[in-house]
Write a structure and sequence with these properties.
This protein is α+β, with helices and mostly antiparallel strands. Helix content is 23%, strand content 29%. The longest helix is centred in the last third of the chain and has 17 residues.
Length: 339
């Protein structure tokens, strides 16, 4: 039957503690049908399936040498502008967003052009997407606001295996404002709060901003590091890599924790100044300093003072953890030794 459990996939997410997300037959079939339609699959389609086909893996491939490749689907980590430049003119480039708690992919951009925002994950597939206030899911947000992504539909899983507490927190039975759209009748489908921050675009597509759980406190004020990163990318352009992190430094004989922005400029002026090396951090050039002054001035017009980094550090690449996510612990450790 459709409501029978099909599989449980274990994921630690950002907590580090494995939990089993259970998905059902109906969930998987609905997702497969929706994904196939979005990816333009037919009886003539031949697909190579890889569980870890991420943008990082795709960067190891030669687009020119794969003349028979018609479509490339990337997932599991945000694309970079260079990924679009490499693939968009050669294949049907698909950006997919999926989480363990729902079957396969929930949001897909079926055709990424070179001019697209690399973090645009596209449109809902087999489900309905909502954006709510990250502190209160009973407050829906309008187009243009950054908030937490909530999924609704058959593709949403039944919850976490043998963990009712976590299930109740992440899979709410209802949201107060949904009755305005669904009426007072009982909900037919499940809801899942993803913990991911997104923003609706004018065309209805979604841009991935970051994780809700990258929270920190600056001068007693709570901030989302992913929101700080998003503002800097909007100013610098999506082709540039940005990571915001709280770093403990030694100043005047005492330890202080300050907000630092790590930036990898991809424009020609910066790349021509010094070559790529094996070092994580780079020497700041005059070009870098000028750009960061511009960013700081623009940030002052956009965000509160406590969201403006105290320092901007040039880095050569984003260190990744084994699951392929930003290795923030390594950044913290290596940046703490900087003077």
């Amino acid at each position: 039957m459709g409501c029978n459990a099909l599989y449980a996939v274990f994921t630690s997410g950002s907590t580090g503690k494995p939990k089993g997300a259970v998905n059902e037959h109906a969930s998987f079939c609905t997702a497969a049908k929706g994904s196939g339609r979005a990816l333009r699959m037919s009886s003539q389609t031949r697909a190579f399936q890889s569980a870890s086909f991420t943008p990082s893996v795709a960067r190891l491939l030669d687009a020119q040498a794969l003349s028979g490749l018609q479509a490339l689907e990337l997932a599991s980590e945000p694309m970079l502008h260079t990924d679009l430049q490499k693939w968009a003119d050669h294949v049907l480039l698909v950006n997919a967003y999926g989480i363990a708690e729902c079957s396969v992919y929930s949001v897909i951009h079926p055709a990424m052009p070179c001019t697209a925002h690399p973090h645009n994950i596209g449109f809902a597939v087999g489900c309905v997407t909502w954006i709510v206030d990250q502190d209160n899911s009973d407050i829906p947000l309008p187009v243009g606001e950054v908030g937490e992504l909530v999924l609704e539909g058959v593709t949403v899983g039944r919850g976490y295996l043998n963990n009712q507490t976590m299930t109740a927190d992440a899979f709410p039975l209802k949201l107060s404002w949904l009755s305005s759209f669904r009426g007072e009748t009982p909900y037919r489908h499940r809801l899942y709060k993803t913990g991911d921050l997104v923003q609706y675009q004018d065309d209805g597509s979604l841009v991935y901003v970051g994780r809700k759980d990258t929270q920190a406190k600056v001068d007693g004020q709570r901030i989302e590091l992913s929101e700080v990163e998003w503002h800097k990318r909007e100013i610098l352009g999506p082709q540039n890599n940005v990571v915001a992190e709280m770093i403990q430094v030694h100043r005047n004989g005492s330890k202080q924790t300050i907000l630092i922005a790590f930036v990898r400029l991809q424009d020609a002026g910066e790349d021509e100044t010094y070559p790529t090396s094996d070092l994580l951090f780079r020497v700041r050039t005059d070009h870098f300093r000028v750009r960061m002054e511009m960013v700081e001035n623009e940030l002052r017009a956009r965000v509160p003072t406590y969201m403006i980094p105290r320092a901007f550090v040039a880095f050569d690449y984003i260190p990744l953890s084994i699951p392929g996510k930003t290795d923030r612990r390594r950044l913290q450790q290596e940046a703490a030794s900087l003077r």
